[in-house]
């Protein structure tokens, strides 16, 4: 499964952090995920407004845990205005470069589905009133242009039996195998595994790498299974590609009802919402 298609070039590794000014000495890492460029109208792109789709839980995990208090994040801090999002530029091998990132802003979270819309956060204007783009920002724009501006949303949902490609970024090593958002995870690991994971969690930036999996659609409502490769933690937010140009849905992880399968949000179910949000964002 080649990863050099336009579909993969539209995908990037992202991470979310929580930072409450005046209350936290440094940002708290929340989650890693994948985001994909959304191709929008020409006038939107001409204004420098680049939009991306991802999974909502990557940026607001407290909405997806039965008892949010178990995250040990005070309720007053569980606000998206305190969430910082980094998009990392990958190297030639497809691994995130920890020091090469641009900041994204959350434009909208879908009210019910596990989908989020993000946009490139433009740098603040200098005293002269001009924006000073960074080298990383310019490189991201170049990559977006190379990718043709991003993916289009499928006009029809992938059919049962259809084979699609999930292209995203997994956590390296155990970070891609373990559910770090699970409050009980550390208690279930052996002492050696716990020590190894805690060491990795001290420095998570740069610990994402590109991967793909071929999946078969089992239900048009958003259920599939891997037929080649597998999906790892960190791939939430990856597009379910109908072809290299077209996104049929956004992966969120294990299916909510049948956890032995993978779940995704079909593009048709959020298309109207996303275009309204793009217009407002």
Describe this structure in words.
- The chain has 281 residues and is an alpha+beta fold.
- The model has no long low-confidence stretch (mean pLDDT 90).
- The chain has two domains: 6-148 and 271-280, Beta Barrel (Thrombin, subunit H); 163-268, Thrombin, subunit H.
- The longest helix is centred in the C-terminal third of the chain and has 14 residues, at 267-280.
- The chain is globular and about 45 Å long.
- A hairpin with a 3-residue loop joins strand 9 (208-219) and strand 10.
- It has six helices and 13 strands.
- It has a six-stranded antiparallel barrel with strand order 1-2-3-6-5-4. It has a six-stranded antiparallel beta barrel with strand order 8-9-10-13-12-11.
- It comes from Trypanosoma cruzi.
- This is Peptidase S1 domain-containing protein.
Spell out the CATH superfamily of the largest domain: Trypsin-like serine proteases
User: How much is the average pLDDT?
Assistant: 90
Fraction of helical residues? 10-25%
The 3D shape can be described as globular
Q: Tally the helices: what do you get? A: 6
The SS-based structural class is: alpha+beta
Total number of distinct structural domains: 2
Spans with pLDDT under 50 lasting ≥5 residues?
Answer: none
- The first-to-last residue Cα distance is 35 Å
CATH topology of the largest domain: Thrombin, subunit H
